[in-house]
Amino acid sequence: MSLQWIAILIGLMATGGGLVGILRPDLVKRFAGLFPRSVVPAWVFTALCCFLGAREAGAMNMGAVDVIKPYIPFMAVGVFGASIYYMKELLAPRALGGFLCLISVPIVKTASQSGQPFFQFLVAIMYFLVIYGIILLMSPWYFRKFFQPFLDNDALFKVVALGKTAVGVALLLLGALVY
Protein backbone atom coordinates (compact mmCIF):
# COMPACT_ATOMS: atom_id res chain seq x y z
CA MET A 1 0.00 0.00 0.00
CA SER A 2 1.33 3.44 -0.86
CA LEU A 3 1.94 6.25 1.60
CA GLN A 4 -0.85 8.19 -0.09
CA TRP A 5 -3.48 5.55 0.70
CA ILE A 6 -2.16 4.98 4.21
CA ALA A 7 -2.45 8.71 4.97
CA ILE A 8 -5.93 8.87 3.44
CA LEU A 9 -7.18 5.82 5.40
CA ILE A 10 -5.77 7.03 8.72
CA GLY A 11 -7.08 10.52 7.94
CA LEU A 12 -10.56 9.16 7.26
CA MET A 13 -10.56 7.17 10.50
CA ALA A 14 -9.30 10.13 12.54
CA THR A 15 -11.74 12.55 10.92
CA GLY A 16 -14.63 10.14 11.36
CA GLY A 17 -13.73 9.46 14.99
CA GLY A 18 -13.33 13.15 15.71
CA LEU A 19 -16.65 14.03 14.09
CA VAL A 20 -18.43 11.31 16.06
CA GLY A 21 -16.86 12.80 19.20
CA ILE A 22 -18.14 16.25 18.25
CA LEU A 23 -21.62 15.24 17.10
CA ARG A 24 -22.34 12.26 19.39
CA PRO A 25 -20.11 12.42 22.47
CA ASP A 26 -22.49 10.08 24.29
CA LEU A 27 -21.56 7.23 21.91
CA VAL A 28 -17.84 7.76 22.43
CA LYS A 29 -18.21 7.96 26.20
CA ARG A 30 -20.31 4.79 26.27
CA PHE A 31 -17.78 3.00 24.06
CA ALA A 32 -14.87 4.11 26.26
CA GLY A 33 -16.69 2.75 29.29
CA LEU A 34 -17.54 -0.62 27.75
CA PHE A 35 -14.37 -1.26 25.71
CA PRO A 36 -11.96 -2.46 28.44
CA ARG A 37 -14.04 -5.55 29.28
CA SER A 38 -15.39 -6.25 25.78
CA VAL A 39 -14.66 -9.75 24.51
CA VAL A 40 -15.24 -9.29 20.78
CA PRO A 41 -12.79 -6.38 20.31
CA ALA A 42 -10.21 -8.31 22.34
CA TRP A 43 -10.55 -11.31 20.02
CA VAL A 44 -10.46 -9.14 16.89
CA PHE A 45 -7.36 -7.24 17.99
CA THR A 46 -5.68 -10.49 19.09
CA ALA A 47 -6.38 -12.03 15.68
CA LEU A 48 -4.95 -8.94 13.98
CA CYS A 49 -1.88 -9.10 16.23
CA CYS A 50 -1.33 -12.76 15.34
CA PHE A 51 -1.68 -11.98 11.63
CA LEU A 52 0.67 -8.97 11.76
CA GLY A 53 3.18 -10.82 13.94
CA ALA A 54 3.18 -13.78 11.55
CA ARG A 55 3.60 -11.44 8.60
CA GLU A 56 6.59 -9.69 10.20
CA ALA A 57 8.13 -13.00 11.32
CA GLY A 58 7.76 -14.36 7.79
CA ALA A 59 9.49 -11.32 6.34
CA MET A 60 12.48 -11.22 8.68
CA ASN A 61 15.74 -13.11 8.35
CA MET A 62 15.83 -15.76 11.05
CA GLY A 63 19.17 -17.31 10.18
CA ALA A 64 19.37 -20.92 11.30
CA VAL A 65 15.66 -21.14 12.11
CA ASP A 66 14.50 -20.05 8.65
CA VAL A 67 13.30 -23.62 8.20
CA ILE A 68 10.25 -22.88 10.40
CA LYS A 69 8.99 -20.08 8.14
CA PRO A 70 6.47 -22.32 6.32
CA TYR A 71 4.92 -23.15 9.71
CA ILE A 72 4.55 -19.56 10.94
CA PRO A 73 0.90 -19.18 9.79
CA PHE A 74 -0.04 -22.36 11.66
CA MET A 75 1.84 -21.16 14.73
CA ALA A 76 -0.05 -17.86 14.57
CA VAL A 77 -3.38 -19.72 14.56
CA GLY A 78 -2.16 -21.76 17.53
CA VAL A 79 -1.11 -18.62 19.40
CA PHE A 80 -4.53 -17.08 18.74
CA GLY A 81 -6.31 -20.19 19.99
CA ALA A 82 -4.12 -20.41 23.08
CA SER A 83 -4.66 -16.71 23.80
CA ILE A 84 -8.41 -17.13 23.68
CA TYR A 85 -8.48 -20.37 25.66
CA TYR A 86 -5.81 -19.86 28.33
CA MET A 87 -5.95 -16.16 29.12
CA LYS A 88 -8.44 -15.71 31.92
CA GLU A 89 -8.94 -12.09 31.03
CA LEU A 90 -8.00 -11.22 27.48
CA LEU A 91 -8.35 -7.48 27.91
CA ALA A 92 -9.26 -5.41 24.89
CA PRO A 93 -6.87 -2.54 25.82
CA ARG A 94 -3.93 -4.94 25.99
CA ALA A 95 -4.80 -6.40 22.59
CA LEU A 96 -5.24 -2.87 21.23
CA GLY A 97 -1.78 -1.99 22.55
CA GLY A 98 -0.24 -4.93 20.72
CA PHE A 99 -2.09 -3.97 17.56
CA LEU A 100 -0.87 -0.36 17.76
CA CYS A 101 2.72 -1.55 18.13
CA LEU A 102 2.49 -4.04 15.26
CA ILE A 103 0.54 -1.92 12.76
CA SER A 104 3.09 0.87 13.06
CA VAL A 105 5.90 -1.28 11.64
CA PRO A 106 4.72 -1.48 8.01
CA ILE A 107 3.42 2.10 8.07
CA VAL A 108 6.72 3.56 9.31
CA LYS A 109 8.63 1.36 6.87
CA THR A 110 6.50 2.54 3.94
CA ALA A 111 6.74 6.17 5.02
CA SER A 112 10.49 6.19 5.57
CA GLN A 113 11.20 4.48 2.25
CA SER A 114 8.81 6.68 0.27
CA GLY A 115 11.06 9.71 -0.03
CA GLN A 116 7.96 11.93 0.08
CA PRO A 117 8.04 15.34 1.74
CA PHE A 118 6.45 15.57 5.20
CA PHE A 119 6.50 11.80 5.71
CA GLN A 120 7.75 12.60 9.21
CA PHE A 121 4.25 13.81 10.18
CA LEU A 122 2.83 10.31 9.74
CA VAL A 123 5.89 8.70 11.34
CA ALA A 124 5.54 10.94 14.42
CA ILE A 125 1.89 9.91 14.80
CA MET A 126 2.88 6.25 14.56
CA TYR A 127 5.60 6.69 17.19
CA PHE A 128 3.07 8.22 19.57
CA LEU A 129 0.77 5.27 18.90
CA VAL A 130 3.63 2.84 19.61
CA ILE A 131 4.33 4.53 22.94
CA TYR A 132 0.64 4.41 23.83
CA GLY A 133 0.51 0.77 22.67
CA ILE A 134 3.42 -0.16 24.93
CA ILE A 135 1.70 1.54 27.86
CA LEU A 136 -1.48 -0.45 27.18
CA LEU A 137 0.47 -3.70 26.83
CA MET A 138 2.20 -3.16 30.14
CA SER A 139 -0.76 -1.69 32.04
CA PRO A 140 -4.15 -2.09 30.35
CA TRP A 141 -5.90 -0.19 33.16
CA TYR A 142 -4.25 2.99 31.84
CA PHE A 143 -6.91 2.96 29.10
CA ARG A 144 -9.49 4.19 31.60
CA LYS A 145 -7.02 6.41 33.45
CA PHE A 146 -5.99 8.07 30.20
CA PHE A 147 -9.52 8.79 28.99
CA GLN A 148 -11.13 9.66 32.33
CA PRO A 149 -10.19 13.39 32.31
CA PHE A 150 -11.68 13.72 28.82
CA LEU A 151 -14.85 11.89 29.81
CA ASP A 152 -15.36 14.02 32.92
CA ASN A 153 -14.84 17.42 31.27
CA ASP A 154 -17.12 18.15 28.30
CA ALA A 155 -15.14 21.19 27.13
CA LEU A 156 -11.88 19.24 27.11
CA PHE A 157 -13.62 16.38 25.32
CA LYS A 158 -14.80 18.74 22.54
CA VAL A 159 -11.33 20.28 22.18
CA VAL A 160 -9.73 16.85 21.83
CA ALA A 161 -12.40 15.77 19.33
CA LEU A 162 -11.76 18.93 17.30
CA GLY A 163 -8.01 18.27 17.47
CA LYS A 164 -8.49 14.71 16.27
CA THR A 165 -10.64 15.96 13.40
CA ALA A 166 -7.99 18.55 12.49
CA VAL A 167 -5.23 15.91 12.44
CA GLY A 168 -7.46 13.69 10.30
CA VAL A 169 -8.11 16.50 7.83
CA ALA A 170 -4.37 17.27 7.73
CA LEU A 171 -3.63 13.62 6.92
CA LEU A 172 -6.34 13.62 4.25
CA LEU A 173 -4.83 16.72 2.67
CA LEU A 174 -1.32 15.27 2.84
CA GLY A 175 -2.54 12.05 1.25
CA ALA A 176 -4.55 13.76 -1.47
CA LEU A 177 -2.24 16.67 -2.35
CA VAL A 178 1.32 15.86 -1.25
CA TYR A 179 1.89 12.12 -1.23
TrEMBL record:
<feature type="transmembrane region" description="Helical">
    <location>
        <begin position="67"/>
        <end position="87"/>
    </location>
</feature>
<feature type="transmembrane region" description="Helical">
    <location>
        <begin position="118"/>
        <end position="143"/>
    </location>
</feature>
<keyword id="KW-1133">Transmembrane helix</keyword>
<feature type="transmembrane region" description="Helical">
    <location>
        <begin position="155"/>
        <end position="178"/>
    </location>
</feature>
<keyword id="KW-0812">Transmembrane</keyword>
<keyword id="KW-0472">Membrane</keyword>
<feature type="transmembrane region" description="Helical">
    <location>
        <begin position="94"/>
        <end position="112"/>
    </location>
</feature>
<feature type="transmembrane region" description="Helical">
    <location>
        <begin position="6"/>
        <end position="23"/>
    </location>
</feature>
<protein>
    <submittedName>
        <fullName>Uncharacterized protein</fullName>
    </submittedName>
</protein>
<feature type="transmembrane region" description="Helical">
    <location>
        <begin position="35"/>
        <end position="55"/>
    </location>
</feature>
